[in-house]
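Sample pair:
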Amino acid sequence: MNFTKKMFQENATLEDEVHVAGDSESWHIFMIVFQVILALGITFGNTLVIASFWKFEPLRIVSNIFLVNLAVADLLVGILAIPIRIAFVNLPMVRQDMQMFLQELKESLQMSPFCFLWQIASVLLLLASLFTLAAIAIERFVAVRMPFRYIELCTTKRCVLVCAFIWALSIVMSVLCLAFVKEQLGNTCRMADLTSPTYFKCILAPCIGFVFLVSWVLNMCTFYTARKAVKCSINILRDNKASEWQMLSTYKVTVTAFLVLVTFTVCWVPSVLFTAAGISEQLGLYQAMVILLLFANSGMNPIIYCLRLPLFRRAFVKILKREDGSIATSSYA
């Protein structure tokens, strides 16, 4: 009995230490520095992806349109979402004058505008990334399962229109949270303290769950089909270098799309689950780590492209070295 009581006391003490550490000034200074470095890395990497697509014609193909759209969403995390969090969450904990200014702003407007700005930006970029991943999954599914209709179905015009629709839908769904504002706001920037549970449970969660499930199902089907096709055809096509290179390239892009979805899942699922359970603010120090994890996801995709896609890798090198000319497309590796 005494052992059980002591164990509960130790757990309570640990939780208190975690909350205190998460609220300390030194911790917020560390968070500011880390997030600034992260934002610079995210901005640099995704700018490279967009610049490579813009500069080099071999990269301006249909399958890369959605990768660039994802890079735009990730870039906005670096130049919009992270700075908003630093300015309105971390900085006020370090500078008292900033905290007083935000408190006066909140009292004068009878609301927390920076909290809603943070929430709208977070939901917008989450949905834009998720919808783009679904579009990539559909494009890869058509390329692998319906190769003879790929050129007919996946045109440049259609892909650009899909990207425009993705952003329009993401904006509408993120701003829609303003229609579910609580009459009595809470004291934190947590979604549960700002909007009615109806917004998350009846609108946001079902949408995220459905699109996420579709993306995974399509990616698994595409990955399995592509892997099977490569194993069955590699010996047959060995004498036809062009066809062999085309099949291996399609397979490599498919695997890359699958890896992007896996990293997105690992980085975003903890945050979504904690928000759904309404326990994000109770995590203290761990909540900050979860937020850093989902921010870090925006910097991972350029690294994946560099490691997995030779054309992007060569384009990155040419841009960084400020070299002119095109990039070689004849080699698979």
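The longest helix spans residues 197-233.
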